[in-house]
Design a protein that fits this description.
With about 300 residues, this protein is α/β, with parallel strands linked by helices. About 35% of the residues lie in helices and about 30% in strands. Bound molecules: adenosine-5'-diphosphate (ADP) and magnesium ion.
């Protein structure tokens, strides 16, 4: 299948001399939800802005639906909707006029029924004749989404869509995004809310200091990099790990009351039975045990720290 977005060897140096992107290669498949994760300043907005034709690319090429975003700018742009990071809406316009204008910009014929449905889906229909300046912050954000969708793009970019958004709106937004995906729209979002990526994305890319350090199916990523931890609550605290247990990856916590065994499901022979047997032989008793699995957040932090 032809990727719907193809980024090839993309680098970007701003006029200030700062290199914001370094040799990015990334293909996005039609219909997926792709989350781009990265700390502040990693280059997420720069990458999205280049794909959407707002920032000039440096070296490299970008295709949207097979169209070169530089030489076939208008056709490429018609396929793309962007919900920008910054709240930038024409405050003196009404909601309805803004949508009509956005649709017109793309060159598509007016479709009042579609725009009505869009506003209804975003709970903005009642506000269609209001000037945008009279709307709350959450509503302004929904107007931005409506604007991005006014021309029925096949690809939707959302740059930190839920930064500073209340929980309820966030939930509504995710529901809407899922609905869009079901209708065949490809979604690319940036976020530093890791739960969001964990919850929503099919694939995750991690960007750090202008480099794409990893791109992986979410499930595979969790499996590959996720660690599990077994914690035993000891009845008697230990001052140190007994030498007989030296060949297990163990650590003590809580003043020696907790014994923790960290293991990697994928790469290591898990020796829990062996460990428990040895503890029995050493008369080390425990009153409780539990296991936990590292979250995407732990994985993300370790990736970004390593680099
Ligand atoms: N117009 C610009 N001129 C110079 N440097 C910029 C410009 N825009 C962004 N940068 C720098 O590029 C880096 C990446 O920025 P950005 O893409 O906004 O990151 P992110 O969206 O991941 O927070 C940052 O260090 C930022 O300061
Ligand atoms: Mg950004």
């Amino acid at each position: 299948m032809q990727p719907i977005i193809s980024v090839q060897n993309l680098s970007k140096t701003y006029p200030s001399g700062f290199q914001a992107l370094k040799g990015i290669n990334l293909d996005i498949q039609p219909g997926e939800i792709f989350a781009l994760l990265g700390p502040n300043g990693a280059g997420k907005t720069t990458l999205i802005s280049i794909i959407c034709g707002i920032v000039n690319p440096g070296d490299g090429r970008v295709f949207a639906d097979g169209l070169d975003i530089v030489t076939q700018y208008r056709e490429a742009r018609q396929r793309i909707g962007l919900v920008p990071q910054e709240l930038s809406v024409p405050i003196f316009e009404t909601v309805w006029d803004t949508l009509k204008f956005s649709r017109g910009l793309s060159g598509k014929a007016m479709d009042a029924a579609y725009l009505e449905q869009l506003l209804r889906d975003l709970s903005l229909w009642d506000k269609r004749h209001n000037k945008i300046m009279t709307l709350s912050g959450g509503m302004k954000r929904r107007v931005l989404i409506a604007k991005a969708l006014a021309h029925q793009p096949r690809i939707l970019f959302l740059d930190e869509p839920t930064a500073g958004v209340d929980v309820e709106l966030r939930r509504d937004m995710w529901q809407m995004i899922r609905g869009l995906r079901e209708s065949g729209v490809t979604i690319i979002l940036t976020t530093h809310y890791i739960e969001e990526a964990e919850d929503m994305a099919d694939r995750i890319g991690v960007i750090n200091k202008g480099e794409l350090v990893l791109v992986e199916e979410k499930a595979a990523l969790m499996k590959k990099l996720g660690k599990k931890q077994l914690t035993l609550q000891l009845t008697q605290p230990l001052a140190e790990i007994p030498p007989a247990l030296a060949n297990f990856p163990l650590a003590l916590a809580q003043n020696g009351e907790q014994l923790m065994y960290t293991y990697d499901e994928q790469n290591e022979k898990v020796r829990i039975t062996d460990l428990l047997r040895q503890l029995g032989a050493l008369n080390i008793e425990f009153r409780d045990l539990n296991t936990s699995q590292s979250s995407l957040e732990d994985i993300f932090v370790s990736l970004v720290e390593e680099k």
